[in-house]
Amino acid sequence: SSVNQVHLTGGNSGVIDGTTFSDIQDIDLKAGNDTATVDSNGYLDGVLDGGSGIDKLVFNTNDSAGRSHIRVEEGGVINSLSDSIANPEPIYQNFEVIELLGSDDIVEVLAYHEDADINNLSSYEIDGGDGFDDIVIDLSDVLFAQLGQGEINQLRTFIDDPNGKVLDIDFGSGDLKAENFERAFITQSFADFDSF
């Protein structure tokens, strides 16, 4: 259960625990509280798996390429929609903490959508970091209906203006914590969100 540090700096290349690598398409970090940093041009053609433990994924877009667009999906899978020339869409699995450095980012949280298994949800802590960042939360009717009035108020306040606020919602089998976002949106089919 060692702690690993991975830094993806280019296509299938980077540094792992101080050793430079290239032509590696898949990395499994196994057990431990690992950190993986992905630069704007960094990606794997395969899968980067955080393994067990509380693992952190950092998108380091603090350079000329400048932004990230990620999707946080059910089952702990994160797709990075890269703007690199090759336009890869790498898959990052089993990361619980996500941090976005640099510029203006967009995060779509689909882990709690209509088809999610409400008894087996993933937990995420998402930090928008610097820049002007958006978060879009797709929330199922079933999960919304289970929220208490305090959580509904917190969600409403965060959606209205997330600046300087922390969203911390407990869905029973999974939690969502989000901070450092400038705009927030919810996709939810209840006809009148404001009536709750």
Please tell me how large the radius of gyration is.
17 Å
Low-pLDDT segments, ≥5 res? none
* Largest β-sheet summary: 9 strands, mixed
Q: Mean pLDDT score, rounded?
A: 85
Strand order of the largest sheet: 3-2-1-5-7-11-13-16-15
- The helix content, as a percent range, equals under 10%
Shape: globular
User: Per DSSP, what share of the residues sits in E-state strands of 2 or more residues?
Assistant: 35-45%
Number of strands: 17
Distance between the termini: 45 Å
Note the run of SSEs as H and E. EEEEEEEEEEEEEEHHEEE
Oligomer: single chain
Number of helices: 2
Helix-and-strand structural type: mainly beta
Task: Describe the protein in words.
With 196 residues, this protein is mainly beta. Helix content is 9%, strand content 38%. It contains 2 helices and 17 strands. It has a 9-stranded mixed beta sheet. Strands 4-6-10-9-8-12-14-17 form an 8-stranded mixed beta sheet. The mean pLDDT is 85.
